[in-house]
Amino acid sequence: MNNYGSTAAVVIAEASSFLKHRTMHTTAYRLSSFIGKDLKKFYKTARITQATNKPGHYEINLDTRKLKTPVGNIFQIPGESLAMAVAAEWNSQKDTIKRHSMHITSLCNTAIDNPTHKTRSQLVRSICHYLGSDTLCFRMEEPEKLLQFQEENWDPILEWFKNRYQINLEPTIGIVSPAIPDETFTTLEKQLNSYSDWTLTGIQQLVDCLKSISLALALCESEVAVEKAVYLSRLEQIYQVNQWGSVEWYHDLEVQETQARVAAATLFIHFCHDFSSSQTKQKLSSWT
What we know:
alpha+beta; disordered N terminus; 4-stranded antiparallel beta sheet; 8 strands
């Protein structure tokens, strides 16, 4: 994640705008902890405070109450920017608390509680699994216009991925998975292990939403924007809609939900990366 600065700022601004379109989560953890009857709002203001036991970490206070995770852990998160984003979600609630709409809060809960009990190495391997099922690698031989549509839109991302990470993902026709050499997995594992646990949580959500590790990392690196990444992940469906039409309300909601979750994960990753970078700089300065 080296392409920060003005480009990243544009991606973050765009991601923020997409978070206005929120509908519902789908994972089992979110269903059990965040979906259900909306609660009546019981606080006036959400504020951030510095955690006294973790340098650089923040807590969220709902008036005088400390926010906790679904399993009862104190909600402590890295960095002021991420804390402000969470507080903004809570302050945006009106008469009822629509917890299903709070995508960044949900990601923080996942990072803190680790509801699937995955170790770091297991999380990295689950992300690497998408090398063999990356949406951008699966092409349709017919109709020819669809294949051309896929090549024109997907090949530039795969070429960028190859140049950036020295990982070559070969497209395949039909449903046959491409052969992935062991050294390719090793290369990607090395890259992913350079990220913090929190950043990996965000990347996991991106690959789950986009069904593509190449698109997820392109978004992390500000190579594509949120709207473009979601568009590319739905290319075959978009082609079919252009040919045959769509159920307008259904597809609109589906796209908005995906964009909201992808935008939240993008913000989450950038905020976590910024925090990790600042912590590293502080350690280096203390050694000199």
